[in-house]
Amino acid sequence: MISIILPYIFTIMILFFTLRYVYNIETKKCAEITDLWEFKYIKYYAILFIIFILLFFIFYPISLIFLHKNIVLYTLPLVFSLVFVLSIFKFLKKTKGNECTDSWEKKLLKIYGIIYVITLTLAIISLIILNILNIRK
Asked: 96 φ, ψ to 5°?
């Protein structure tokens, strides 16, 4: 059970740091940053995904049955997460050198994005390998 919960706890922590980062930028009143669609997507994604994870664990047994039977609901968080990571990289590129966005949370977002891309790539490679092995049987 701990192996299931740990990645979600890690994700919630990252999302809370993301919200803190967003709040700090908003309090600096940097309109050129807060008007970016990437900034808004990062903000609302973090809020909604924290709620999604908490609801998933509150209704854990029901969630597993429901998500595994409905492929759309199973893959939807993955799609939103991919857009989240892409928006992180676009946001980092657009705000490079901007004083409003300089903080350790910005570096954390970059590291999170890189880890997510590496993890996703390894997952896709392993799925391809498993499919190839299943085809040969």
From this structure: -60, 125
pLDDT digits (tens, 9 = 90+) for 78-136: 788 889 999 999 999 999 988 888 889 899 999 999 998 898 888 778 878 877 777 66
What pTM does this model have? Answer: 0.79
pLDDT in tens, 43-62: 999 999 999 888 877 777 66
Terminal alpha carbon distance of the chain: 32
CA 36 to chain centre: 18
Could you tell me if 21 and 103 are in contact, meaning their C-beta atoms sit under 8 angstroms apart?
yes
Enter the tokens of residue 80. Answer: 């939103």
CA angle, residues 85, 115, 57, in degrees to nearest 5: 75
